[in-house]
Amino acid sequence: MGDKFPGLKCGDPSIDKLVLCKRAGCLLELFVLNQQRDSRAPTKRRAKRGPKWTCAPEPVKQLKRRCVDRYCTSPATLEALLGVVSISGCVLDMCGGTDDAVAIRLRDTCQVLTNDVGPRLSPATNLDASSASFTDDFLAAHHGQQPDWIVTSPPYKGALAFVKAALTVAKKGVALKLPLSFLEPCADRAGWLQANPPALCMMMSRARYQPAHVRVGEFWGVWYPPGS
Q1: 175 vs 34, 38, 47, 136, 164, CA distance in Å?
Q2: Please, how many CA atoms are within 13 Å of residue 8, restricted to the half-sphere of its CB?
Q3: How many domains in the chain?
Q4: Residue 208 lies in a domain
């Protein structure tokens, strides 16, 4: 017993307060079982909480973004943009569907095109707007028609790829709702932002998304393509 539990010294006056099993390894086995039970407890708690995203999942082959990396544009946020920027003509929401705020608000005054990587939002096309081939794929799908404006809220992870793609497609301007962290001079975008700063940054209050405790500082970034 002393070999397995050095802390239990023979002759200790407090040893008579312990009720020991006759088998020396019994307490050690009980300790191991308790450790295993405690290690499984966090997993059980996570299983009880269930998935963080409650909408229908995308098909496996189209999981281009994390399930919680979708930050929808609210009607109030869009109205704030329209109060500052004049948007007309053909408008593309490159990361949204026909029931999103951009399509609903602008369909009466503009020609609205929609696109999203998955079919869940019922967009007109299902193209990956972050891919290098997006411009060619989009023009092929729309017989060479370029939108005047792109207004959208892309996935915040890898947002730079969406900004670059939007600038190659739009004729007049690009307005993307992005996290404030996008303006930080990180290694993947510091040089690009220095060469291509937004023409307008419209700051907004922190928004709450799924999961409910996540609050994100956001802004509308507006760029005008060269020669527009």
Answers
A1: 56, 50, 39, 21, 12
A2: 14
A3: 1
A4: yes
